[in-house]
């Protein structure tokens, strides 16, 4: 059986879609699973060895140069690659017009199915027009967890129950650390940056948490000039903290993968640390905890909720419990 997954973005959403792979193969071990994903997240999907082919999608880059012949040629090549295989099932678990178009262009065998979401979850960017590309639409509760959404869609279509703990198919830490900026000893990482200011945790809370961790090194990642400035301000108050250089996606994933402890706001890299099974404290300040909380491991502590940021003391207590349990 050949199956195509369409989940193109964003980082956290692609991560949360990974357990579909293990679920399908648990019930159909001979299935071949391909995946269409934004080119920036190919390296994340590639970490799962059970995805056969990854088809890169580059709309974020293409839309900046649609008038150029090279871009149009690349788009034609994408659709050629997409249509190379015939699939028994195509799953669109994002529910947008752009992902629906990808589903519509994919080829299915006679009697094959194109399956997607009949509705969105609360706060999602669901676009109802995507249903015109479905042969079957699966309705879910509006408060279905982000990890459960794709799992339940596939389970409904393929005739099994997705009631086990999610398996992201990700490898454990390497015995050797190859990146120059990684400390030799155990380190904590703070994922403090996020695009929406309301989701951020107060600087004084980060400083208190970092001080409580001393002398464990605290690494501060950043993804924009503003986040770098915020990291530098935190590091100035924490002698055990270090601002990292600009990281590629591969390097950022490695940072999460090897951390002895991750503390982060509701953002993709925090969820990646949790998916790798690292001791993780997830901080919810202005987003609903039910939607993305790490609920599959005792190594994950979820604090706060929409409109109710956690205190520094709550985070410090959670960290001590996680480190004592190692």
First-last Cα distance: 41 Å
Helical coverage, percent range: 25-40%
CATH superfamily of the largest domain: Glycogen Phosphorylase B
The profile of the biggest β sheet is:
6 strands, parallel
What order do the helices and strands follow?
EHHEHEHHEHEEHEHEHEHEHEHEH
Radius of gyration: 20 Å
Determine the strand fraction and express it as a percent band: 15-25%
User: Regarding CATH, which class of the largest domain?
Assistant: Alpha Beta
State the domain count. Answer: 2
CATH topology of the largest domain: Rossmann fold
Number of helices: 13
The CATH architecture of the largest domain is: 3-Layer(aba) Sandwich
Q: Which descriptor suits the 3D outline?
A: globular
List unreliable stretches of 5+ residues: none
Number of strands: 12
């Amino acid at each position: 059986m050949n199956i195509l997954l369409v989940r193109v973005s964003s980082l956290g959403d692609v991560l949360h879609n990974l357990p579909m792979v293990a679920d399908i193969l648990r019930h159909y071990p001979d299935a071949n699973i391909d995946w269409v994903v934004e080119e920036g997240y190919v390296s994340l999907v590639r970490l799962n060895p059970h995805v056969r082919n990854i088809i890169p999608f580059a709309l974020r880059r293409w839309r900046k140069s649609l008038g150029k012949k090279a871009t149009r040629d690349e788009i034609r090549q994408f659709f050629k690659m997409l249509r190379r295989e015939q699939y028994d099932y195509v799953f669109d678990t994002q529910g947008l017009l752009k992902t629906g178009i990808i589903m519509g262009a994919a080829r299915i065998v006679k009697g094959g199915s194109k399956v997607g979401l009949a509705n969105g979850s609360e706060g999602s960017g669901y676009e109802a027009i995507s249903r015109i590309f479905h042969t079957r639409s699966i309705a879910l509760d509006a408060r279905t967890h982000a990890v459960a959404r794709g799992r339940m869609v596939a389970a409904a279509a393929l005739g099994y129950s997705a009631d086990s703990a999610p398996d992201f198919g990700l490898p454990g830490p390497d015995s050797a650390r190859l990146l120059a900026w990684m400390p030799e000893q155990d380190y904590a990482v703070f994922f403090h940056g996020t695009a929406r200011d309301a989701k951020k945790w107060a600087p004084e809370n980060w400083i208190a948490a970092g001080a409580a961790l001393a002398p464990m090194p605290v690494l501060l990642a950043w993804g924009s000039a503003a986040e770098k400035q915020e990291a530098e301000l935190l590091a100035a108050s924490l002698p055990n903290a270090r601002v990292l250089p600009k990281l590629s996606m591969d390097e950022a994933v490695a940072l999460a993968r090897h951390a002895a402890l991750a503390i982060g706001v509701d953002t993709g890299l925090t969820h990646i640390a949790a998916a790798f099974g690292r001791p993780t404290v997830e901080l919810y300040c202005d987003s609903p905890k039910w939607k993305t909380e790490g609920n599959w491991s005792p190594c994950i502590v979820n604090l706060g909720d929409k409109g109710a940021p956690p205190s520094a003391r709550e985070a410090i207590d959670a960290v001590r419990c996680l480190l004592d349990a190692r």
